[in-house]
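Extended Data, panel c. Modelled sequence:
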Amino acid sequence: MKTNFTQALVLTSTLLFLQSCAVSSSTAQPEAEADLKPGQGSSGNSFVVLHDGTIQHYKSLKLVTGIFSSPHLLADAKTKIPASDVCAYQNEDHFALSQQNLVNGRRSKSAVESLPGFAVRIATGKLNIYSHKYYNGSGTSEELFIQVGNEGAILAYKPGLLNDILKDHPEAFNFFNSRKKIAPVSKKLLATAELFNKAPLISRN
């Protein structure tokens, strides 16, 4: 009973989270994706969300990149899944979603640690953080995105936007605005998100 409830809850949040993916009545229920830590999946807990909203589960899901083949996912060591078919996916390394879910983000056809143009979730909770890494011609650049909960828009990170989110969480707000230099920016955002996600909301009303 508890397992069914958890799966139903996860399905609801996942489908709301992937707003640009259509919801199919025949969609399979994803397994406890919301309980996974960023960058950590588990054997048998890999899945792919297709553009029609269908969720397909696999025992293993590997990201394949190389000079002689276009980046794709290889499911259960035999099934090739083109990047163009995927809206989001979870494997043992990370949870990632297509750039079509990102608001005001840079469009990219290159890949660094995910499928081309996909953003990887690096923090999860009340405040989610996504990292979109891409080749800039001479090296690697990183664009960060923030999202409140699983239903909010995934917006390009800006200090003012994050400050507005943090305003009712003094500890996270003060840490983010401290003069302590932390590089890269993603490291400071991760620490801020950790404080925000564990802190109770303090109303100013």
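The CA atoms of residues 46 and 79 lie 13 Å apart. This feature is highlighted in the accompanying rendering.
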